[in-house]
Design goal:
two-stranded antiparallel ribbon; DUF357; mainly alpha; AF1782-like_sf; about 190 residues; single chain; DUF357 domain-containing protein
Amino acid sequence: MKTEFFKTIYESALKETQITPKKDTPYYKLAGEILEMALAYRDDGITFLNSGDRVNAHAAFCYGFGWLDFGIGSGLINGNIPKCRIPVFSEDMPKHLTDHLSEKTTRYFRMLTEACDSVESSPDKESPLHSFTEKIYALSMDSVFLGDAYLKKDEKVNALAHFSYGYGWLDAAVRAGLFKITDKRELFTV
């Protein structure tokens, strides 16, 4: 799949969403912030794409989808998450963006790994939110492992997709208060 087509899927998913909690509640405000982040990263991705920066566009769409899917998965936003959100992307980044892709992919690998090491679950073990945080943490770590596997095959477009998507989920969960930051606060958008 090409980044441009993934953008179309992302835009379509955003159009189908709506906030589920009642207005004037903390969860409504939280859902609004999550949707706002998903929309902002869509807009950033389009701006990057229009300027020829396909690397940052690709990362923005995948990261934003992580935020959106967190909102859907948490029940704060209506929508559907397919069994496999991150497809296999074609490794067709223009040659002049090779160094940029390598730098960004390596940096996101480091950042997601450090982010996973910098949080701990907030909800009590008896809370239904505790098992949800465990799933989010597992998804984020799976994103590290899948991205690393692609990186070892020199498939940086796919590696960056997994690092960005997993990071979006984890960052949104931190914003939602499901994880507390134990180190490197600068890695999160709180």
